[in-house]
Specification:
The complex is a heterodimer. By secondary structure, chain A is of the alpha/beta class. Chain A has helices at 40-48, 72-78, 95-109, 117-130, 135-139, 148-162, 178-190, 206-210, 231-239; strands at residues 2-11, 14-24, 29-33, 54-62, 65-66, 80-83, 90-94, 141-142, 166-170, 197-202, 215-220, 223-228. In chain A, the strands form three sheets. Chain A has a six-stranded mixed beta sheet, sandwiched between helices. In chain B, 22% of the residues lie in helices and 38% in strands. Chain B folds into two domains: 4-271, no CATH class; 378-434, no CATH class. By secondary structure, chain B is of the alpha/beta class. The chains are: A alpha/beta, B alpha/beta.
C-alpha cells in the first residue's frame, strides 16, 4: 500500500526528516509516536502534498505509484486522506457544500458517477449519525465555531464520506476528552478493513487503547528510532521518550 | 481623442434637438452644465477625489454622440414584472414591460416626461445632484437625453422589483451617452429597483450616468445595481440621494465589467431617523479599473449608516475605494460603520483605499476598517487535500470571501441573482484559463 524509502525532507532550509523507511501493507494499522518536534506532522503533510515541504531524497510509493509526483487533489482521489491535527476554518463555505463538492470531485477523478443531492444527503446523514455530527454542525461553515472535539469528529466524517484507502490521522486525539475520543475511535475502527490501511500519528498511547495498531514506530530526530508491536506503545507510556534523547514536553 | 471641446461641440450641435429643448428652465440647466464642464475640464489625478482614477484612457477614445439605436435587436427576457430597457441611453419601449403597477406609481422614461409633463420634473431634476465640482455630472446635465423616471406615490408599496436594463451597443464607432435617472419616493412608499448595465458587442462606449433619488418621510428604497458592461466600456455613474426623516435607502453595487468604472454615491441623511446602507462587491481582472467612491453626510441627528465593500482583483486590475463619513455639527446620536476588504490574487493587482471620517459632533459612534489580503493557503490546501481541484478550490474561496457582503442584499431573489452572477463570472474565467 505505502512504501516510504530513505525519505529526507527539508522545511525552510532545515532538515526535519532524515531518512525514513516505512512500509504499510493493505489492512494494516501503523502508529507513529514520538516527542514534539520529531517530525510527525511533517511526515503527514508530505504524504498529503502540502507546499513548503521539500523532499531532498528518497521516495514514496503508494499502490506502486510515485506519490510525490501527484497534486494534493490527485492524492485524495487516489485514496489518500489526511485527518488534520488542526482542521482549517473556512468562513463562507457551507459544510454540506464542501463535503458534496469534495465527494463528487473525488468520484469524478475516480471515474465514478457523481451523486445527486438526495443520494448525497442520505450518505452523509448515515455517516454523520455514527459520529454524532449534528445537522446543526453540517449547516455551519466548514469548522467555523466548532469546538476542538467537533472539528475532529468532522475530520472523521469527511474520511467516512470520502472512503480512502490510506488514512493518515495526525494527532486526531489531541484536544479530545475521553467520551469524544471514544466516538472518534469508534468512527475510525468502523472504517478498518482488509483493503484500507491507516497511519495513526500520536503523542500519547491513550488513543492506541482504542485504535489498536498492528505496528508501532517511534519517530525521533527525524528518524524511525524503534519499531515494534502494540506493546511498544505501553512501554513508551511508562518510560516516556527520554531514551530517544527527547526533552519530554508533556 | 475626446477633448473638452468635443463635448462642447456636441452640445452645441444637439441642444436644439435634445429632449425638452424649448423649456427655458431646462435650457438654463443645460447651459450651466456645459459651462461648468468647460470650466472644470476632465478631472486629473491632482484632484483629491480623482487621485487614484485616471481618466486619460477615456479621453484617448473618440466618442461620437449615441444615436437612437432602433436597429439594434436584443433578446430580452420578458419574465420581469416591470422593466424599462434602454439601448445606448435611449428608451426602447419594444424591449420594455411596465406591467401592472399600483395606482400612484409612474414608471417611464425621462424623454417621455420631458415631452408630456415636463413641469413635474422641475422640483427634482438637478436638485439632489449638487454642483460639487464634478465635471462628469456637469457634462451629464448638459447632454442628458434619457433615463428612467420612477415616482412612487404616498403610501404606495411596489412589491415586485422594478428592473432597468441598460444596454451599451457599440458598433463600428465608439459612442457616449448621458443617462439621467430620477427616483421620487413619497412619504411612506416602498420599492425595489434593480439596474442592469450590460454590453452588447465588443466596441468601446461611454456610459455617463447620474441618478437622483428622493426618499420622503418613512420611504424605504432598495436600489441594486449590476455593472456588467462590455470590457472595452467606460462607466462613470453618480447617485445623489436625499433622505427625509425615518426613510431608509439600501444600495448594492456589483461591478464585474467595464475597462474603467466609477460609481460615486453621495447620500445626505437629511432627516432624523433616516438610515442608509451602502454595500458593494467587485470582481475584476486583466487591466480593469473599478472605483467605488461614497460620501455619507449625516446632516441631522439620530441617523445611521453602514457600509461594506468587498472585492477581488486578479492580474493587473486596480480598485479604488474612497469612503467618507461626514457628521455635521449638532448631528448627535450618530452611528456610522464602514468596512472595506480586498482580496488580491496577483502581485500586480492593486487596491487603493481611502476611508475618511469627518466628525464635527461629539455623541457619535463611527468606525472604519480596511484590509487587503491574499487567498488563504491553508484553506486552499485543506480543500485540495479533500480532492477538490485547485482552480475549483480557488473559486470556492473567492465566492466564500464575497459571501457575507452579498448577504447584505436584503431582497432574496436579487441576492441569489447577484451571487449567481459572481459564480458565472468566475466560472467563465476558469474556462478561459483552460
Amino acid at each position: 500500500m505505502l512504501e516510504i524509502k530513505d525519505l529526507h525532507v527539508t522545511v525552510d532550509g532545515a532538515e526535519i526528516l532524515k531518512g525514513i523507511d516505512l512500509a504499510i501493507a493493505p489492512g494494516e494499522v501503523h502508529a507513529i509516536m514520538g516527542p514534539n518536534g520529531s517530525g510527525k506532522s511533517t511526515l503527514s503533510y508530505v504524504l498529503a502534498g502540502r507546499d513548503g515541504y521539500e523532499v531532498t531524497g528518497g521516495s514514496i510509493l503508494y499502490k506502486g505509484e510515485d506519490l510525490l509526483e501527484m497534486a494534493p487533489e490527485e492524492r485524495a482521489a487516489a485514496g489518500v486522506f489526511l485527518a488534520f491535527q488542526y482542521p482549517i476554518e473556512i468562513p463562507g463555505v457551507a459544510s454540506m457544500t464542501f463535503l458534496k463538492t469534495a465527494l463528487n470531485a473525488v468520484r469524478k477523478q475516480r471515474g465514478e458517477s457523481e451523486l445527486d443531492a438526495m443520494q448525497f444527503l442520505k450518505l452523509v446523514r448515515e455517516k454523520a449519525k455514527l459520529l454524532n455530527v449534528t445537522d446543526d454542525m453540517l449547516k455551519r461553515a466548514v469548522n467555523v465555531g466548532f469546538s476542538g472535539g467537533e472539528k475532529k469528529r468532522n475530520e472523521v466524517l469527511q474520511m467516512a464520506v470520502l472512503n480512502p484507502t490510506l488514512a493518515v490521522l495526525d494527532e486526531t486525539d489531541s484536544g479530545l476528552d475521553i467520551d469524544a475520543l471514544k466516538v472518534v475511535a469508534d468512527g475510525v475502527n468502523a472504517l478498518r478493513g482488509p483493503d484500507r490501511s491507516m497511519l495513526v500519528i500520536t503523542h500519547y498511547q491513550r488513543l492506541l487503547d482504542y485504535i489498536v495498531p498492528d505496528r508501532v514506530h517511534v519517530l525521533a530526530h527525524g528518524r524511525i528510532a524503534r519499531s515494534g508491536g502494540k506493546e511498544l506503545a505501553h512501554e513508551l507510556e511508562a518510560k516516556g521518550y527520554a531514551e530517544f534523547g527527547a526533552n519530554e514536553a508533556a | 481623442m475626446t477633448e473638452v471641446q468635443t463635448f462642447v461641440d456636441q452640445y452645441g450641435a444637439a441642444k436644439a434637438v435634445l429632449p425638452g429643448a424649448g423649456l427655458p428652465w431646462l435650457a438654463s440647466l443645460r447651459e450651466q452644465g456645459i459651462e461648468r464642464f468647460a470650466a472644470l475640464g476632465f478631472p486629473t489625478r491632482n484632484m483629491e477625489a480623482w487621485r487614484y482614477t485616471n481618466v486619460r484612457p477615456l479621453q484617448k477614445v473618440a466618442f461620437a454622440p449615441a444615436e437612437p439605436a432602433e436597429g439594434v435587436q436584443i433578446a430580452v427576457d420578458h419574465g420581469a414584472a416591470h422593466r424599462l430597457s434602454f439601448v445606448n441611453g435611449r428608451f426602447r419601449p419594444d424591449l420594455s414591460n411596465v406591467g401592472d403597477l399600483p395606482a400612484g406609481v409612474v414608471l417611464t422614461s425621462l424623454a417621455t416626461v420631458l415631452a408630456e409633463d415636463p413641469e413635474s420634473l422641475k422640483d427634482h431634476l438637478g436638485a439632489a445632484a449638487e454642483d460639487d465640482g464634478e465635471s462628469f455630472l456637469a457634462l451629464n446635465t448638459a447632454l442628458m437625453a434619457d433615463g428612467y423616471v420612477l415616482r412612487i406615490g404616498r403610501g404606495v408599496v411596489v412589491e415586485d422589483p422594478i428592473e432597468m436594463l441598460f444596454i451599451g451597443a457599440a458598433s463600428d464607432k465608439s459612442v457616449a451617452y448621458h443617462l439621467r435617472n430620477l427616483i421620487v419616493a413619497e412619504e411612506g412608499s416602498a420599492a425595489v429597483i434593480v439596474e442592469d448595465h450590460i454590453g452588447h458587442g465588443e466596441g468601446a462606449y461611454f456610459s455617463n450616468g447620474a441618478t437622483e433619488v428622493f426618499a420622503g418621510p418613512g420611504a424605504r428604497l432598495k436600489h441594486y445595481k449590476l455593472q456588467d458592461e462590455a470590457r472595452a466600456a467606460f462607466h462613470l455613474h453618480g447617485a445623489f440621494v436625499r433622505l427625509d426623516r425615518d426613510s431608509a435607502y439600501e444600495s448594492f453595487v456589483l461591478s464585474l465589467g467595464a475597462r474603467l468604472s466609477r460609481n460615486e454615491i453621495r447620500t445626505v441623511l437629511n432627516g432624523t431617523g433616516s438610515e442608509c446602507f451602502l454595500n458593494g462587491a467587485y470582481v475584476v481582472a486583466d487591466e480593469q479599473h473599478v472605483d467605488n467612491t461614497t460620501f455619507i453626510d449625516h446632516a441631522t441627528p439620530h441617523t445611521d449608516s453602514r457600509e461594506v465593500y468587498k472585492g477581488v482583483l486578479d492580474d493587473k486590475a486596480r480598485a479604488v475605494f474612497q469612503g467618507t463619513i461626514m457628521v455635521r455639527p449638532d448631528a448627535q446620536k450618530i452611528n456610522g460603520h464602514q468596512l472595506n476588504r480586498a482580496l488580491l490574487l496577483s502581485d500586480k493587482a492593486e487596491i487603493d483605499a481611502k476611508p475618511a471620517l469627518e466628525i464635527y459632533a461629539d455623541d457619535v459612534k463611527c468606525s472604519h476598517g480596511a484590509t487587503a489580503g491574499e487567498l488563504d493557503d491553508d484553506a486552499l490546501f485543506y480543500l485540495r487535500a479533500r480532492g477538490i481541484p485547485e482552480q475549483q478550490a480557488r473559486r470556492m474561496l473567492i465566492e466564500a470571501f464575497l459571501d457575507d457582503v452579498i448577504d447584505e442584499i436584503t431582497h432574496p431573489t436579487v441576492r441569489d441573482a447577484f451571487r449567481d452572477k459572481v459564480s458565472a463570472w468566475l466560472a467563465a474565467r476558469h474556462e478561459e484559463d483552460r
